[in-house]
């Protein structure tokens, strides 16, 4: 990417999209295209194609998606598969029609099987059953990966799929039912502290292991991937697994920190960061989800990129953001 390249960030108000915009601005990219949902509904194929025809973006970060935690995935499965399939289909197809040079499709670690070997490698995609609680979302993301690969094979495009681990950071969604685990816990512990509650109840047993990345680190990795030299970019694009096989896997790369902790340990960290002094209880009648989700980041390491934000420091920054945005 050149500093004057036309760069479209789809989903620029979301957790990842807003972080990508900030990173691009810090790196002096001057021609960033942004549209809110009210300005451009990406589930509308005609409107999406008209936008690409008019503005001719050269690079696309596809961070727009319907996302949420385990409660939201359980509650709105039809919306999760329908909206995500529509958004990614329209953007990827319009990108091809209008000559986008590179596209980075943002997926999710939930694309991997529920009982995938740990840490999860890119070649573990499609090797086992998915976690049922977020299967509609995961299937939509898998379809997006396959679409990128199919367009690369048939049309010679250069579309890469990046699979982030669990993300948190500034601009997160702190809705009490529809948010991911870190923003949900930050809000829950803060409100318990304000009310003087004796305990906070966390879903599940607390034993599942999860990996978490600060959103600004994710954005830095995304911009790094999109600005690689042609040789390095083409190397990353090569399908994982058997690169000589037409049945090889899609061009995807894991983006994570390479270490994890239990939900119990995470809850204890959030309790400390928020200053809550009460007890943590675990509701074992609620689902745990996948037992462990740790990303193998060997391919990312090969381009010399590593996450830099320690989890405790990132949680403190995220809590500061929550207080600024939601607490008067």
Structural topology:
Blueprint: E1 7-10, H1 15-26, E2 32-33, H2 45-55, E3 59-62, H3 70-75, H4 77-97, E4 102-106, H5 135-155, E5 159-164, E6 166-168, H6 181-195, E7 199-203, E8 209-210, E9 212-214, H7 215-226, H8 230-237, E10 252-255, E11 261-262, H9 263-274, E12 279-283, E13 292-293, H10 298-301, H11 311-326
Parallel strand pairs: 1-2, 1-3, 3-4, 4-5, 5-10, 6-9, 7-12, 8-13
Antiparallel strand pairs: 8-11
Helix pairs in contact: 1-7, 2-4, 4-5, 6-9, 6-11, 9-11
Task: Describe this entry's structure for a reader.
Pathway: Nucleotide-sugar biosynthesis; GDP-L-fucose biosynthesis via de novo pathway; GDP-L-fucose from GDP-alpha-D-mannose: step 2/2. NADP(+) binds at residues 11-17, 106-109, 141, 164-167, 180. Its EC number is 1.1.1.271. It holds the Pfam family Epimerase. It comes from Uliginosibacterium silvisoli. With 328 residues, this protein is of the alpha/beta class. Helix content is 42%, strand content 14%. It contains 11 helices and 13 strands. The chain has helices spanning 15-26, 45-55, 70-75, 77-97, 135-155, 181-195, 215-226, 230-237, 263-274, 298-301, 311-326; strands spanning 7-10, 32-33, 59-62, 102-106, 159-164, 166-168, 199-203, 209-210, 212-214, 252-255, 261-262, 279-283, 292-293. The strands form 4 sheets. The protein has a 6-stranded parallel β-sheet with strand order 2-1-3-4-5-10, sandwiched between helices. Strand 4 (102-106), helix 5 (135-155) and strand 5 (159-164) form a beta-alpha-beta unit. The longest helix is centred in the first third of the chain and has 21 residues, at 77-97. The model is unreliable at 241-248 (pLDDT under 50).
